[in-house]
Amino acid sequence: MAYVKRIVCLANSYKTGGSCIAGKLVSKDGYGAWIRPVSARPTEEVSFFEYCYEGYASPKLLDIIDIPLLEAKPHNHQTENHVIQPGRWVKKGSFAWDSLDELRDRPDALWANTDSTKAGGLYDCMSPQEAARFDYSLVLIKREELVVEVDTSTWDGRTKKTYRAKFKYKGVNYSLKVTDPVARAAFKPKEVGEYTLNDVYLCLSLTEKYKEDGRCHKLVAAIFTNPPL
Hints:
Blueprint: E1 3-15, E2 18-27, E3 30-38, H1 48-51, E4 63-72, E5 81-84, E6 90-94, E7 125-126, H2 128-131, E8 138-155, E9 158-169, E10 172-178, H3 181-187, E11 193-209, E12 216-224
Parallel strand pairs: 3-5, 10-12
Antiparallel strand pairs: 1-2, 1-4, 2-3, 4-5, 4-6, 7-12, 8-9, 8-11, 9-10, 11-12
């Protein structure tokens, strides 16, 4: 039976073929578990026409949204997944940046710190076997300082900018790919280099296994600043 869940939107990030949207449940008792609405397609991305509001506006970070859902569909460590029901998503309000600490997670570690990608990553991936030790794939953390690295990479004769978030958590240094489209757009005009942000919240996501390298990747799905980027 279909149902509606109300969430605070804490991620609306790039995913191949569409977007990955996630947030925390809003109920009469406060704020609860993470929910990631997914499509019924094998790749689970959500398309614009599946998640847009009436008038074709896109959900923004900190929107409070009613989402029609069909069933819970946990898969491996991504226990937060719920398959969407066709129907219009409805914005019901906005969540205040000043209240983000109410939603903050405090994990002892950011999953397993055992592997890194060669393209500037630091503890940004792990094997599916290591990921299977965990029963969650989303966290919201706060950092007093974050460095956004703007760089370039060339593939098949084309050069494009890349974006990584560098920060320390529980004594461990990380360098993770940024998939937040708003943050990427904000830093796209800037020169190659490193840019420091202070007092930020980060939504981090642990992906399913990538076909390209067989590993699960940690991504920065959203960067929250005040004022917003």
